[in-house]
Design brief:
Largest sheet: none
Distance between the termini: 60 Å
Order of helices and strands: HHHHHHH
CATH architecture of the largest domain: Up-down Bundle
Radius of gyration: 20 Å
């Protein structure tokens, strides 16, 4: 009888973990992304623009940079293996911008973003937004 209860408990446990682990709704809300590529990309661009354009002496600058790093990681991990998104020109453009910004944050964590990089990022953000409009 004890062995039967043990098997039953294990089966219920596996079943409940399997159901909660398969729910995409909880995964989307946990990482802050909606699952809609266009909405997520526009939100990402808006958030990164705010982080980039903050003055270097702003008190929330370090928190904003940390949030930008997290957003970059979440976006990249969510969409890099999605074949329906990987071939879009907006995705390749935004990935280029994300790689440049993440490279700066990891190589020069205490330095402000150079104006040349800010200009390049803004250009790539505009290209990605234009590509998103074309793709919709």
């Amino acid at each position: 009888m004890r062995k039967l209860l043990s098997y039953l408990f294990a089966l219920v446990l596996v079943f409940s973990i399997g159901l909660t682990g398969c729910s995409s709704n909880t995964a989307s809300s946990a990482n802050g992304l909606t699952g809609n590529y266009q909405q997520d990309t526009l939100a990402l661009i808006s958030s990164l623009r705010e982080a980039i354009n903050l003055p270097s002496d702003a008190p929330e600058k370090s928190a904003s940079e940390a949030e930008a790093k997290q957003i970059i990681n979440k976006f990249a991990s969510r969409y890099r293996r999605d074949n329906s998104v990987a071939t879009l020109s907006s995705f390749t453009t935004i990935r280029t911008a994300l790689n440049a910004l993440a490279g700066h944050y990891s190589s020069y964590p205490n330095r402000p973003i150079p104006q040349k990089l800010k200009t390049r990022l803004e250009q790539e953000f505009k290209q990605a937004e234009a590509a998103l409009r074309r793709e919709s």
